[in-house]
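Notes from the 1:1 (GR / supervisor)

We went over the backlog. Supervisor wanted to see one worked example end to end before approving the batch request, so GR pasted a single chain during the call. The sequence is below; no edits were made to it. Supervisor asked that the structure be written out right there so they could see what the output format looks like.
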Amino acid sequence: MPVHTVKTMNKLIYYGIIVIFLMAATASQGIDLGGLVVGAGFMGIVIGFAAQSVVSNMISGVFLLIEKPVKQGDTVDVVDSNVLGKLIDISTFSSKIQQFDGTVVRIPNEKMFTSNLRSFNLSEVRRSEVTVGIGYSENIDKAIKVIKNAIEKNVVYSLMEPEPQFSISELGDNSVNILIRVWYPRDDLLEVMPNLLKVIKNALDEEGIEIPFPQRVVWEGKES
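Structure output shown during the call:
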């Protein structure tokens, strides 16, 4: 069982034992708990409203540890909170995620449990997409062949099974846009993406295939 799971369960057992011990001790001394129970009931209602989120976060933390939709060390995306990074801790009331810029975000467990979560560790491979535009005068099939050959030779972590996929995503204002999908081992994102863009750019340049930049044509009519 993971260490953080053991710690959380130990805390719950510890506090439960304290409550049981106090109840047993007062009963053995013949203390009348009638008034205390009434007062405690009233205070319990007040405290219950105040501590509702605390209890909810604690229970959600237990459910996270039992169900394990994500686990410590996973790269996760908390979609509803727009937080993406490495899950570094699931504690009693909150979870901590270290984003790729180094900052650590604390998210209440209730939010984690009820949010849409994306885990990047459930699959051994991942896929990324890039779009490259070529000039309208260029041969599409040739451009795709050049890009595919360049990826196979120069992008080390790109997988050939599944192989890269190519499709025309848009006939843009200035270019024919080619959508490129590349598969790679899940832990090699930072190795693949920067190298992929560089390889594609260099390959198209070597073959003299134009990557057009946005252009604007200004037309001035003659005065009548």
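Supervisor's comment: The mean pLDDT is 78.
Batch request approved.
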